[in-house]
Amino acid sequence: MTLDLSLLPDGGVPWLAASGEHADIVLSSRIRFARNVAGYAFTARARDGERLRVLAQVREAVPRVPSLVGAVLLRLDEMTTIERQLLHERHLVSKELAALEGATEARSGAAVLVSSAAAVMVNEEDHLRLQVFRSGFDIGGAFQAATKLDRELGGEVPYAFHHEFGFLTSCPTNTGTGMRASVLIHLPGLVLTQEIAKVLQGLQQMGLTYRGLYGEGSEVVGNFFQISNQTTMGRSEDELADQLTRVVRRVIEQEEEARRVLLRDAGYIIEDKLWRAYGTLRHARSLPADEAMNLLSGVRLAVGLQLLSGLSVYTLNKLLIFSQSAHLSLEAGRTLTESEANLARARHVRQVLASEAGLADR
Amino acid sequence: MLCDQCHERDAVLNLTQIVENAVTQLHLCEKCAAERGIETTVSMPKHPLGEFLQAVQQQALQVPGDAARCAYCGTSLRDFRASGRLGCAHCYGAFEQSLRDLLRRVHGSAQHVGRSYQVPNPALLERDTSLGALRAQLQKAIESEEFETAARLRDEIRTLELTAR
Predict the structure, then answer these.
(1) Which has the closest alpha carbon to B133: B151, B153, B119, B107?
(2) Cα distance between residue A322 and residue A325, in whole Å
(3) Which B residues, 30 through 69, put their C-beta within 8 Å of a C-beta on chain A?
(4) CB contact at 8 A, A107 and A44
(5) Distance CA A67, CA A149 (A)
(6) Which tens digits make up the pLDDT trace of A58-86?
(7) What is the CA angle B10-B13-B18, rounded to 5?
(8) Ordered alpha helix ranges (H), chain B
(9) B 75-114 residues inside an 8 A Cβ radius of A
(10) What is the CA radius of gyration of chain B?
(11) pLDDT digits (tens, 9 = 90+) for A300-346
């Protein structure tokens, strides 16, 4: 199967649009529900046939689920590694479902349903992982849409539920609501003013946790953090969403304050640093992934501080995702080596920035 | 020394009795001692097999639940401890107490207070439940080596699974 990205509604990444509140700081808001279909062993314990039946049951229900109207079903068990990796780079599937670590092939029945409103991973660690992304800071919007999807799908497919323990998941860290609310947030101000450690510590005291750009097990690169609730039981879904919203609003304020301090106390140093980042991105001939991420972080800060105009946050969001290895390989039509990918990345970034440069160069 | 009572068997017990300040010594064999209602559980002689059996017994006492298995999917508590993943929804019932403790440690609570849920189509679940019950019976049949029953159950499960498609 060849992955036809044009089939994906909005490429599966409508949240890149940077249309939401505080979109220069918060890239996306996400709600995820972990669910299992009653009557089958959980994915890891299920036999191939059981996983295929879970997939068939969900697939059969889709036409009656309004949130999934127009959804495209992508079978990861029929894809190449590059194609699976590309879906992971778009945050549509987890590393586990895409079998990017250890295993060389995705497990049978591994799939993802992508509609313009939501994405549903099938046969991940849990049978179903319902996800809704929103552009910018909009936990509330994502929560409403995800709850709607959950009710609709749960009305068609029987979920595993326990009166005391709630929604049953493969890993007890997700049991109860099965809900993970998170934001992907850019905090260069707090990193540069060295306030970040204090902020992250504070998060943990509030029952929240942080990870890198790609969630569990990923490193923090380019000052991008994923902040989410740590626990899923003992509090209602609304409380979990409200708590995250409250704390993230405070973190945004702290980031804005840190940026003001930076400009006030080190204005020209910051300005020079950010223009250098922009210059490198405009002219480099080879760009390793981590370096690109860090430079994009600098340019994003410059746009946020209005030092650099004529460049949209939307473009920066697209660069962040579309300049990653699998995207470059798919464009090239073959698997690129690391050094080839670095060349291709530099070319891609130069082209995109040149077409939007205009005012920015002056 | 022969038994003071039957004068036939070897005495294994030295009984000292004090009756009205008079001290008498009796040497009894096991049988005669038992007849007088005296327990003769002499400490077990040191024996390699005895020690081995004792060790096994102690181990079994230390981790009573670890070998316990979920009748539906066959996951044991030990499997769960090793992987951190439960095998199926029924594991929550099979390991209920251990899980309650774990959930309390992880989340600070073991009680779901969020949205409740009703299974949409009871007919669907009925089928699933009977399938689940059959699987549990199959597991039991295999464990108790009732292979004929197991074969019959396996066929029933296959038929049900096929009609479920």
Answers:
(1) B153
(2) 8
(3) none
(4) no
(5) 6
(6) 999 999 999 998 899 999 999 999 999 99
(7) 130
(8) 30-35, 48-62, 77-83, 91-94, 96-107, 122-143, 147-164
(9) 75, 83-89, 92, 99, 102-103, 106-114
(10) 29
(11) 999 999 888 888 999 999 999 999 999 999 999 999 999 999 999 99
Closest residue in chain B to residue A207, using alpha carbons only: B107
Q: Which residues of B touch A177 (CB under 8 A)?
A: 112, 114-115
Cα–Cα distance for residue pair B136/B10, rounded to 1 Å: 56
End-to-end Cα distance, chain A: 46
What's the pTM value of the predicted model, to 2 decimals?
A: 0.78
Amino acid identity at A90: R
Asked if A33 contacts A327 with a C-beta cutoff of 8 angstroms, the reply is no
For residue A189 the two structure tokens come to 């101000």
CA distance linking residue A92 with residue A94, whole number of Å:
7
Cα separation, A138 vs A249, in Å, equals: 11
Q: By the 8 A CB rule, do A270 and B149 touch?
A: no
B75 interaction partners in chain A (CB closer than 8 Å): 45
- Look at A42 and B111 and tell me if their CB atoms are within 8 Å: no
Residue A114 pairs with which residues in a beta bridge? Answer: A72, A119
Question: Which of A65-74, A161-170, B154-163 has the lowest average pLDDT?
Answer: B154-163
Amino acid at A282: R
* DSSP-derived 3-state class of residue B10: strand
Residue where the block lists tokens 């009653």: A38
Q: Which residue of B has its CA nearest to A50?
A: B161
Burial of B113 (0-12, 13-18, 19+ CB in 10 A): middle
The ipTM estimated for the assembled molecules is: 0.85
Decide if B109 and A234 are in contact by the 8 Å CB cutoff: yes
Q: Listing from the earlier edge strand, what are the strands of the sheet with A179-186?
A: A72-75, A111-114, A119-122, A128-135, A26-35, A179-186, A224-229, A208-211
- B86–A172: do the CB atoms touch at under 8 Å? yes
Q: Which two tokens stand for residue B158?
A: 């296959």
DSSP line for A217-273: T----TTEEEEEES--SSS-HHHHHHHHHHHHHHHHHHHHHHHHHHHHHHHHHHHHH
How far is residue A176's CA from residue A162's CA, in Å, rounded to a whole number?
9
- Amino acid in the structure at residue A146: A
A349: number of CA atoms within 13 Å, CB side? 33
Looking at residue B87, its amino acid is G
* Residue B119: partners with Cβ closer than 8 Å, 6 or more residues away: A38, A158, A159, A161, B125
Chain B residue nearest residue A171, CA to CA: B85
Nearest to B124 among A36, A53, A158 (CB): A158
For chain A, say whether B119 makes contact (Cβ under 8 Å): yes
Cα–Cα dist A1/A247, whole Å: 44
Q: How far apart are CA A113 and CA B133, in angstroms?
A: 31
